[in-house]
Amino acid sequence: MKATALAHPNIALVKYWGKRDDALILPHQSSLSLTLSPMSVTTTVEFGADTDQVEINGHTAKGSERDRVLRVLEAVRAEAGGKLGPARMVSRGDFPAAAGLASSAAGFAALAVAARAAAGLAPEPRAASVLARLGSGSACRSIQGGFCEWRKGERADGADSFAVQRFSEAHWPELRMVVAILNRDEKEVKSRDGMKLTVETSPYYAAWAKDAEAELPRAVELIQRKDLQGLGALSERNAWRMHATAFAADPPLSYMHPATLGLIEHLREQRKKGTPVWFTLDAGPNPVLLTDAAHEVAAEALARACGAVDVVRCVPGGDAVLKSEHLF
Ligand code: PMV
Q: Fewer Cβ close by (within 10 Å): the C or N end of the chain?
């Protein structure tokens, strides 16, 4: 009745931006990401409590954070036949305080795996991915390691909208992602609100969704060939296009800061000088640099030279796993 799981975050190379169903978190397009080590979130779930209790990083969760966790627990209870009762959940991330990386992907992936095990449901990456998706879209890509593709699916109930692993973390161990923290502040517009505004008001939205879907098989081919230059170029143009559709929203939405553009510009110059380094950018000002093991130190140095207050160097990470040690 009690189980604990550990999961890693992921960063998308072909981004997810925009939902066709806000409640079920169903996307308009497919996306592709790399699971990242060493950062992780560990979560313990036990059914059979007096009331639902949700504790994240030492605080009792409230509001939408709590609601999203309860949603996932509710779906597990339904799948297990509805006889499990309230649950206690405790979750802890080992992210550096200023990682600037959303821990929600790792958090909901760990929750999905732990809650299914605590409910006695068989380990099933597909079912865990659908479940994690109900908490946070990108979390469905953190159930497995390496490169995961979130297939948008066609069904209205979301049963075919989950992530599948395309290549394990062992496929390309030399690949590196270097997170450049330019600004530690909470972003002003959460991705969930930014996406909604973009879908509803950006005249470029349909073009974005069509293009991202078409880029995905190209990204898979480049990963297959371990073509860093090709993948770097694809990841940059996909990030630019995601941000371009947000710029065109009404009111306009920009997650970039002047320092973000400064760093991006600097990367171009560095590439001309022979350093293989590219960027991707989520819904915030902090770029994630894509490079290889031989250049991660150079990537960190150039991020710091462009104003990064913190840098986190990451390698391809593995699957979400069950642990025998519990948090309570
Ligand atoms: O799943 P959410 O609500 O954290 O949204 C993630 C959106 C991006 O990080 C910008 C892109 C992505 O695919 O992860």
A: C
